[in-house]
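All the exercises in this workshop are built on plain-text protein records. Instead of coordinates, the fold is spelled out as a row of discrete tokens. Once this layout is familiar, the rest of the handout is easier to follow. The record below serves as our worked example for the rest of this section.
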Amino acid sequence: MVIATASLHRSQVVLSRYASPSTFDAEAIIIASFNARNALIDLLNSMRAVLFFGSFGLVSATQTVFSAQSDPSLRVGIIGAGAGGSSAAFFLRELAKRDKDVDIDIHLYERSGYIGGRSTTVKLPSQFGSVSIELGASVFVDANRNLVKAASEFGLLLQDGHGSEADTGMAIWDGATFRYRQKQGSYGWLDNVKLVWQYGRSPFRAHSIIQRTIQRFLGLYQDHQPRRNVSDFVAALSDSVDLTKISSERFQLDNGVGQGFIDDLAGAASRVNYGQNPLEMHALGGMVSMAASGTHSVVGGNWQIFEGFVNRSGARVHLSTTVERLTRLDDGKWLLMASGDSGETSSSVFDVILLAAPAAQTTIEIVNSHAMSRIPQQDYVPLHVKLLVTNASTPLPSFFGLTDPQETPKTTLSTFAYANRDQVKRPKFSSLSYLRQLLDDQWVIKIFSEAPFALDEAFAARDVLWSYDKRWLAYPYLRPNPDLAPIELDRGLYYLNAFEPLISTMETATVASWNAVALVAQDFLDLCPRCTWAESPC
């Protein structure tokens, strides 16, 4: 028996070449019966081939010894109902629609009780009205063609940015002082003048390299040929420099962006989007963190896009169901064993498995395959999110070393560059934002931080009317020179999250899922999509 155990973040993924003796009970009988059934089917089909072609004249061409017409062309099990898994189910169904001879039976397994993964909302208590606030993935941008198209086709109403109802100004905080300020109501030409005065030509140079990256990203939608290796995506997204092998800071410096701009604006953007600093993350992640042109969110929550994917996929959905074990059978199919919250167990055999969840955050045992050993260790950033309702129009001025509430910003991003380099006091949050006003004296606030945020430092206890805390393993560390997992871990087992060490967004999860679905179409259905879904109809 060969057992390799990899400690991947908060849980273990166990890889077994053969199951331990204690597992050879009911499961062994199930596996044996499936193998025997499949061997019989293969035998009957081979017999049918001989008989059909007239050997001995035993049957006519209109007779059938064994018919699989009632069976689907392909059975696919998807693990994870976030952006990747939900869109994969939808894309599979879209492919089946293009070929009337293809029938795909799709099963979607989700450990939690909802669809959407890291895109979920919290509904405020009824005394604050019928208001839902994004807890995880909050926005997408114009360049995110799959999400924009899905929202349009599903009839969802979009709002700009985070749904903020007012211009509240913005500041960048380094833990001791404000490095940059935009006063309330000052957006426009005055801000451009201030940016040039403070940072010279750096904003324009940064904009130029960001736009180059966006244009290369848009090229992914125009190339219908699926990619079998994540490194192929790296090549498509890079030009003369591999953007995953150089830090975001180094890449910007090499392109004429000043250190002050990198520390302040680029640092704040990468911190609020990925909880990391330009010095620590690769350039591709850094460019994506600053590509915030034309931000949108769905009124009522972005999760509605992913629920829309699932509703239109025809998939059989198994919520509150944990996949415990995948066993590779002798015929190459996969036996999936799952358990529900109440302890009931189930098993199903699939031609294809799509793993649409971070391997580091699952406890799936893979039997008779070396699949999991092919996934490098990937650590995820712990992110603390605090939502609160307050009757304070601003945080306490003293929290920022101020005395005048009128000078206290309502939206503050933090840069950690000075704390890491100059021993300045480390900021206690990554972002603190007044999202919306409920009544004349009530506001909703969202705070991102790397450790639990102490409200009493920024708000008087009497001013906090309600609060909610959530800890996420939000996104992978986007370190330069990432170890990349293969997209196909084994025959019929595809890993959608292999893309995450490059870019971790809702949109790129759908890009990765389309790519995996196109590979499945090629490998198992002998189909090659003529265009991506974003470009369809074609």
